[in-house]
TrEMBL record, chain B:
One Pfam family in the UniProt entry: Response_reg
CDD domains listed in its UniProt record: LuxR_C_like (cd06170), REC_NarL-like (cd17535)
Annotated source species: Streptomyces silvisoli
Keywords, ordered alphabetically: DNA-binding, Phosphoprotein, Transcription, Transcription regulation
InterPro entries linked to this entry: CheY-like_superfamily, NreC/VraR/RcsB-like_REC, Sig_transdc_resp-reg_receiver, Tscrpt_reg_LuxR_C, WalR-like
Annotated protein name in UniProt: Response regulator transcription factor
Keyword DNA-binding listed: yes
């Protein structure tokens, strides 16, 4: 019996908690809606300026007016993007064209943007090209002209609540007004009351519904505001594609550079190491053939030398293979390969892993070498004792977090291996986030969009 | 002594068969894939299995998995694993059941026939044969372990050879010192690492490996 009571109480508590959460959410949405409304009022002037300036530019020919006005538009749009990211958690990408630059053509003329001129273009001409030929900026203007409407929309729930509340208070207000000698008023009828302030019960119900409806509507509406605003602000498809192409070109060049350097290194290592040793072994064996009958002792010594050379060559090849594609990675996949790294590290490394399948081999390899680099950093630069590595796959991304208890203060820009890791990950659209305050801890998070293939077949025994 | 051999490269398999037969071993079966290996191990119950890690059909760690599976079915079945590379991770897995009778060597070690056949015999007798590279890696990853750092250079040498699975006699032979000196060193090592001393060679080796794996 007591058990049942406890269960009931627990369910009751849970419901109460859910109600409280919902209430808090509604209040938050109301506040946010009102803030958005207030912000949208601030877009009226810039919009008027932008429209007037553009009209004057293209109808009357006052060409110097458009650039500053459009710059203002862009500035407003950027601010809205920031608000969307901070308040709504919606990241809206920017895809403005790159800075217009002047290029001297072989025939002595100048090209900037889409225009070619005989004389050196002035700054205003560059600005004009920059701002009037960028579809992303015209898109910003489109958003600016709808911003007020969206703001009003976001304030609707608050208005409904206010309307319902005032409506309910009309009888009291009318009563007070009568006492002060005021007569009937048509204002009362705006709130569904009779001119004398009398409120019928259907009106009561209706006003109550409006009041509570306002609360109920707030979260959904403010969310719609965010979604529409983001949609209006996001760059046109082809601008997004253009940006994507630019990025792919960059990362492809990086990847090819890295690969070429890697191949050169392997070639050099093979040439100076294994190849040279094989040549020496061949020479030795030739000599052995000659010496076999004449001087068996010398032949034996040469054979021992050859055996040693072959062992060294094998050792070198092993090192090389490890650098190209580590055998554990090939045999066991990423999780066990990271465990193997953890075991080989002089630090106390703890690995937690949740990978239901295997990623593409190039992704696995990139992550492996990244983790290897991070572990080296932790031991060499951070003077850490313990490291925690967490590898898991969420949604459609592989996330790896490497935390150490070292002294922190790592900086990706000051030539540490982090830059290299970042570049290597960029080829796979992966990103690296670094948090390393002075005094530690250092937390590096890698994230790569990737799908996992077939569930893992090999089982993992002991843990690292 | 009957051996089951698993190696997928013909030249190497042939070479190994010749080498082992020349040293008086009997090859009960020479197989070239993981499933065949597991069947041979369970059916033929050899005195020792010599197994390549990477075997068909997956060309991953098929050989190791088959050996581990066979050891689960036939506890203590002696297995000597050969590989082009050595990993602490695999050494741990082989040692995990704590029953000994395991070896883990780089393929290059077959170049030295005496040492290789010695390792095969040791494993067959229930001992261990760990590659010097494995031990070096183990010691490197324990670089910050204080009791280990307190060992004298000589004691460290003795520890390394012992961890490879060698008996006191063998260690003495390798270091050109008397057996008495070796056992003095071992006593000191065990005291410094806080391990219970034991007269049994195998048990001592396993204790040292467990210490290195656990620290």
């Amino acid at each position: 019996m007591r058990g049942q009571g406890r269960v009931r109480r627990r369910t009751h508590d849970r419901e109460r908690l859910a109600r409280r959460v919902r209430r808090a959410e509604q209040w938050r949405a109301l506040g946010l809606g009102l803030r958005m409304f207030r912000r949208s009022l601030g877009t009226v002037m810039p919009l008027a300026v932008a429209l007037a300036a553009t009209a004057l530019t293209f109808c009357v020919g006052l060409v110097f007016l458009a650039p500053p006005a459009l710059r203002l538009t862009q500035c407003m749009a950027r601010r809205e993007r920031r608000v969307l990211a901070e308040e709504f958690g919606i990241e809206v990408p920017e895809a403005y064209k790159p800075q217009v630059t002047v290029e001297t053509l072989p025939d002595g003329r100048y090209r900037f943007g889409r225009r070619v001129k005989r004389t050196v273009p002035g700054q205003w001409e560059l600005d004009f090209q920059q701002f009037t030929t960028d579809p992303a900026i015209w898109r910003d203007l489109r958003w600016l002209s709808s911003a007020l409407v969206l703001g009003v929309l976001a304030a609707v729930p608050a208005a409904l609540i206010g309307y319902g509340l005032i409506g309910q208070l009309i009888p009291v207000i009318a009563w007070g007004a009568h006492h002060l000698g005021q007569g009937d008023s048509t204002v009362y009828t705006w709130f569904l009351a009779a001119p004398d302030g009398e409120l019928s019960w259907p009106a009561h119900v209706l006003l109550g519904a409006t009041f509570f409806g306002g609360f109920g509507l707030a979260p959904a509406l403010v969310q719609r505001y965010g979604a529409w605003s983001a949609k209006l602000l996001s760059p046109p498809r082809n601008a997004q594609l253009r940006q994507r192409v630019r990025r792919l070109t960059e990362t492809r060049a990086d990847a090819l550079d890295a690969q070429a350097a890697e191949l050169r290194r392997i070639e050099r290592d093979l040439h100076d190491g294994v190849q040279a040793r094989l040549v020496a072994m061949g020479l030795n064996l030739g000599a052995v053939e000659q010496l076999l009958e004449r001087d068996p002792a010398a032949a034996k010594a040469l054979l021992a030398q050859s055996r040693e050379a072959s062992a060294t060559a094998l050792g070198e090849l092993r090192g090389l293979v490890r650098g190209i594609h580590p055998p554990v990675l090939a045999e066991r996949g990423l999780a066990d390969a990271i465990r193997a790294l953890a075991l080989d590290s002089p630090l106390a490394v703890e690995v937690t892993e949740d990978l239901p399948g295997r990623a593409e081999p190039p992704v696995e390899s990139a992550v492996y070498f990244a983790v290897s680099e991070l572990l080296t950093n932790a031991a060499r630069h951070a003077a850490a004792d313990r490291v925690w590595i967490d590898v898991h796959h969420t949604g459609d991304a592989l996330r790896v977090q490497v935390t150490d208890d070292g002294r922190g203060g790592a900086d990706a820009s000051n030539g540490s291996g982090l830059r290299g890791v970042e570049r290597r990950l960029a080829t796979f659209d992966g990103v690296l986030a670094l948090s390393s305050p002075k005094g530690g801890p250092t937390i590096v998070t890698l994230e790569l969009p990737c799908a996992l293939s077939s569930p893992r077949t090999s089982t993992s025994y002991g843990t690292a | 002594m009957r051996i089951v051999l698993a190696e997928d490269l013909y030249l190497l398999r042939d070479g190994l068969i010749r080498l082992l037969e020349a040293h008086g071993f009997e090859i009960a079966a020479a197989v070239e894939s993981g499933p065949e290996l597991q069947r041979a191990l369970v059916e033929l119950r050899p005195d020792v299995a010599v197994v390549d890690v990477r075997l068909p059909p997956t060309f991953t760690d098929e050989g190791l998995q088959a050996a581990l599976a066979a050891r689960r079915e036939v506890p203590g079945l002696p297995v000597l694993v050969l590989s082009q590379h050595v990993e602490q991770l695999y050494a741990r897995e082989l040692l995990a059941d704590g029953s000994g009778g395991v070896g883990y060597l780089l393929k290059d070690r077959v170049f030295n026939a005496e040492q290789f056949t010695d390792a095969v015999r040791r494993v067959a007798a229930g001992g261990t044969a760990m590659d010097p590279d494995v031990i070096a890696k183990l010691l490197r990853s324990n670089a910050r372990d204080e009791p280990l750092a307190a060992l004298t250079p000589r004691e460290r040498e003795v520890l390394e050879l012992m961890a490879e699975g060698r008996s006191n006699t063998a260690v003495a032979g390798r270091l050109f010192i008397s057996e008495g000196a070796v056992s003095k060193h071992t006593t000191s090592i065990f005291a410094k690492l806080g391990l219970a001393a034991s007269d049994d060679d195998n048990r001592r080796v396993l204790a040292v490996l467990a210490y290195l794996n656990g620290a």
